[in-house]
Specification:
Number of strands: 4
Distance between the termini: 75 Å
Strand order of the largest sheet: 2-1-3-4
Shape: elongated
Radius of gyration: 22 Å
Structural class: alpha+beta
Strand content: 25-35%
Length: about 120
């Protein structure tokens, strides 16, 4: 009887432990967006070119090819990765002339803002 009780406890702990850790690792979807856009460029450049250049700088830092992308891992791992990569893009975007805006990266899976940075020209 004691053996059956111990076996039942071990099996139950294994099931709950496995489910708990599996739930945390998943795909998280993100989007790079802009708030408070102000364009003051000159010459042949325009707002859409400036947005494209800034977005490309963030995409390159993140290692992605679109303003909407997915990372796999736990929520905190993925959010930390996004924040760290985006911070690396800040020097580059500050050198792109023509506009000002707040760059916002949102975790679409959770609805939370992961990164904000004001690009001021």
């Amino acid at each position: 009887m004691m053996f059956a009780a111990v076996l039942c406890c071990v099996v139950t702990m294994t099931v709950f432990t496995a489910c708990g850790s599996d739930d945390k690792v998943r795909d998280y979807s993100y989007t790079i967006g802009f708030d408070n856009l102000f364009y003051h460029g000159e010459g042949d450049s325009n707002l859409s070119d400036w947005i494209k250049d800034v977005t490309t700088a963030y995409e390159n830092a993140l290692g992605v090819t679109s303003d909407t992308f997915t990372f796999h891992g736990t929520e905190s791992e993925c959010n930390d990765r996004v924040s760290e990569c985006c911070k690396k893009a800040e020097d580059t975007v500050n050198r792109i002339k023509g506009g000002s805006a707040t760059v916002v990266v949102t975790n679409n899976t959770t609805g939370k803002t992961v990164y904000k940075y004001y690009v001021k020209q």
